[in-house]
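Marked as duplicate of an earlier ticket. Keeping the data here for the record.
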Amino acid sequence: QVMLVESGGGLVQPGGSLRLSCAASGLTFSIYNMGWYRQAPGKERELAATITPDGTTNYTDSVKGRFAISRDNAKNMVHLQMNSVKLEDTGVYYCNALYTGSVSYNYWGQGTQVTVSS
């Protein structure tokens, strides 16, 4: 059974930092594209950052230069370092694991709440 368990969410002031972590189990982690998605209240879920098995990263424009995604294939972990957070970064952050081959597999975590407020 595949499980993605997020941690590290919470309340942070504007301009502050937060580090999200996702622990993966039940899958061959090293072959999956990993990502962080977020959903603000009343809005659609959107991509924040992704990282390929070989470490290539991609960010949505609104977080470029502020967020950093990383992965540890030895520990089956993916992290999202959030710096200089803004009010609009508030939302539920979801960990995603995606494998696309002859058969595709797509898994989601339960999400962790991030609230940016003064």
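See parent ticket for discussion. The radius of gyration is 14 Å.
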